[in-house]
Design brief:
mainly alpha; two-stranded antiparallel ribbon; two-stranded antiparallel sheet; 8 helices; globular; binds iron/sulfur cluster
Length: 208
């Protein structure tokens, strides 16, 4: 799906453009994996891409896919007791209380797709949108409604405010992502968001 996925093509083009403008201010490289530590919500559309990548990997590299399955299983034993959502579906609760609980939830948990030996992503071509866009400056709205440009804390260390602004990722990306996710959820009768470990758990195993 990702190679023919219109949203992925738009996002990857926009990210490549931001990296061109960002130059040496962006220090991403294989083995840098700080952004793969700590859980974050993903859309069901992201979850479907990851599952497709894992299914392909099972055929092309069974040993690598088995390692992902093992890490997912281990991760779930740590996540399940505190998961602020529905364990049967893997969908995060959407109320305010769940959002507060999520702030403190599993911030040190490595992504189960991360190969901890190499520090690289085992489903790189199928990784979620957030993994693709993290790094370059992106607009975010603070609690007070103020708009900021957020970057990875390892990047743009010595950049001026003007240099950061000049490297901003296409600001239409979040809306395009939202629209694509909404269409996907409507088509598949889904709501809310999930986590990578729940997206990739073994469907043949019973869930609590
Ligand atoms: S976004 Fe930050 S943590 Fe992630 S690979 Fe790039 S530099 Fe490393
Ligand atoms: S899916 Fe890949 S890029 Fe995204 S957090 Fe996991 S290991 Fe990192």
């Amino acid at each position: 799906m990702p190679l023919h996925d219109p949203l992925i093509q738009i996002v990857d083009t926009a990210v490549a453009d931001a990296y061109l403008r960002g130059g040496a201010h962006l220090v991403c490289h294989p083995g840098c994996s700080q952004c793969c530590i700590g859980v974050f919500p993903i859309a069901h559309e992201d979850a479907a891409r990851l599952r497709e990548g894992l299914t392909l990997l099972e055929q092309t590299d069974p040993e690598r896919s088995a390692r992902i399955h093992e890490r997912v299983k281990d991760s779930l034993t740590r996540l399940d007791p505190w998961f602020p959502g529905d364990l049967a579906t893997g969908i995060l609760n959407e109320d305010h209380e769940a959002a507060i609980l999520f702030e403190e939830f599993a911030n040190d948990e490595p992504c189960p797709v991360l190969d901890l030996t190499t520090g690289t992503c085992d489903l790189y071509q199928h990784r979620p949108i957030l993994c693709r866009t993290f790094g370059p400056p992106m607009r975010s709205e603070g609690d007070n409604g103020e708009v900021n440009l957020a970057t990875c804390e390892l990047c743009f260390i010595h950049a001026t405010t003007e240099e950061i602004a000049a490297c901003e990722l296409d600001p239409t990306i979040p809306d395009q992502q939202k629209s694509s996710n909404t269409t996907f959820n409507t088509t598949h009768h889904l709501h809310g968001e999930t986590l990578i470990a729940y997206a990739l758990r073994d469907p043949s195993q019973p869930h609590p």
